[in-house]
């Protein structure tokens, strides 16, 4: 069983280190091949990985071990973190603007309802109408208060997330 494992490792290691030879052909053009050149005209080419350490020379180290590079952020990770920080900042500011719009809309609605009481007559019908408007204003105020407090809770949650994970304004 151990012999089979050793043989598998040897086959894997030999296939991972393919050898490349640079040989001129009859017309003088260079050809690259895996077998040695006929004669002594060619030369062996050292093939290295496109990026990262040479897999045949580098010892496998667990991720996160000191010196293994597992504790460093890649450029892509850094960009992704910055993008998430900008997105959190944008969400937070959108939520703040939405909460302010809710407040302004509620104030305008209350002013519009209050202005309707000015046109009421100073009699029993006017008093009844004013009472109905006051009830309508109270219901609208409660609805507005619920919407604004929901928007404020969202702002608080997003602000806590920004404080915890960081936010960055676009362009910074």
Give an account of the 3D structure.
Mean pLDDT is 80; it is low at 60-68. The protein has a domain at 85-165. A three-stranded antiparallel sheet has the order 2-1-3, with no helix packed on it. Helix content is 58%, strand content 7%. The chain is mainly alpha-helical. Helix 2 packs antiparallel against helix 3 (124-165). The longest helix has 43 residues, at 75-117. The chain has helices spanning 2-16, 75-117, 124-165, and strands at residues 20-24, 30-33, 43-45. It is rod-shaped and about 120 Å long.
Structural class estimated from helices and strands: mainly alpha
Mean pLDDT: 80
Number of helices in the DSSP assignment:
3
Uncertain regions spanning at least 5 consecutive residues:
60-68
Shape estimate: rod-shaped
Separation of termini?
60 Å
β-strand percent reads 5-15%
Query: Helicity, in percent?
Result: 55-70%
Cα Rg: 37 Å
Q: Main beta sheet: strand number and arrangement?
A: 3 strands, antiparallel
Strand order within the widest beta sheet: 2-1-3
List SSEs in N-to-C order. HEEEHH
β-strand number: 3
